[in-house]
Design a protein that fits this description.
Layout (H helix, E strand, L loop, with lengths): L1 E2 L13 E7 L14 E8 L2 E5 L2 E5 L3 E5 L6 E4 L6 E7 L1 H6 L1 H10 L3 E2 L2 H20 L4 H25 L8 H14 L7 H7 L4 H12 L3 H19 L4 H7 L5 H12 L3 H7 L2
Antiparallel strand pairs: 1-2, 2-8, 3-6, 3-8, 4-5, 4-7, 6-9
Helix pairs in contact: 2-4, 3-4, 5-7, 6-7, 8-10, 8-11
């Protein structure tokens, strides 16, 4: 097993977090073993199996495992599908700071399949952790801990969402698009891109747009802007926040773009809307 860092789990950094990237060889398997620290395993690529106690689970890309210190387990790579695994070790102090999240994740022990829209965020944070750890810029320790907390929160929310609605079949294009649109509706204030959304659904931009029109009656960009404009309308009615601040809060980078979008969906300017809605 190759690793991008020479450190081992026995050399946990003083700030309490160590991330490693492991590239397995074909046919790789670990012996049943345990980690001396709490740990997070994230399958970035490949396929395999995860064995813990008398339970066995299949592993696929974008699967997360959260393990308590001293928990015996085993990883076995599927022939021809060698895995790339990020392993994050963290101290008891870090676990205590994230106790509300980790108590449930430790208890489950089962792998958690990460939805495509959450996987992008987690993979970005993992890469940043590796960069911060290797580059050691000012306050890198804080940045590493912050990234870990963000990842654990994403995993926790994914696990909770899975309890409410079972994952859709891998070939259900409409269900995948619907999940991504639901996520966009919740995270409307982040930058949104048709190219990224289509990639997360494993579809072309044209296919994604066609399905989006069937579900929402509009194109993807139209849908995003309508969600933002409706949220802006709520803020205009309920608060005294300046229009420029509302535009920024709901995800518009340019005030002029916000004014055009708002007028398109509400047939009036934000200021006029505020006056007539009170």
């Amino acid at each position: 097993m190759e690793s991008q860092t020479k450190q081992s789990a026995g050399q946990l950094s003083p700030h309490g977090v160590l991330i490693q990237s492991h590239h397995h060889d074909p046919g790789f398997r670990t012996a049943t073993h345990e980690h001396p620290y709490h740990s997070l395993l994230y399958i970035a690529a490949g396929q395999g199996q995860y064995i813990i106690g008398d339970r066995q689970y299949d592993l696929h890309p974008n699967t997360a495992i959260v393990l308590k210190k001293g928990q015996p387990h085993q990883l076995i790579d599927k022939p021809g599908k060698a895995m790339v695994v990020f392993v994050v070790y963290f101290s008891r102090q870090i676990a205590t700071a994230n106790r509300q999240i980790l108590d449930e994740l430790f208890e489950s022990q089962a792998p958690i399949a990460i939805a495509s829209h959450q996987a992008l965020s987690i993979r970005k944070s993992l890469r940043q952790m590796l960069h911060e750890q290797n580059d050691k810029d000012v306050l890198f320790e804080f940045a590493v801990r912050q990234c870990l907390s963000s990842i654990l929160l994403d995993i926790y929310r994914t696990a909770r969402a899975a309890e409410k609605s079972p994952p859709c079949p891998a070939d259900a294009s409409t269900a995948r698009v619907a999940k991504i649109l639901d996520h966009v509706e919740e995270q409307y204030y982040h930058p949104q891109s048709l190219a990224v959304a289509a990639k997360m659904a494993y579809l072309s931009q044209r296919q994604f747009t066609n399905i989006c029109r069937k579900i929402k009656g509009h194109s993807f960009i139209h849908f995003v802007n309508s969600v933002r404009a409706n949220r802006a309308a709520d803020l205009l009615r309920q608060t005294k926040t300046p229009v420029s601040a509302i535009a920024f809060e709901v995800g518009f980078e340019e005030l002029s773009t916000f004014y055009r979008a708002f007028k398109r969906y509400h047939k009036t300017s934000p200021l006029a809307f505020r006056k007539t809605s009170r």
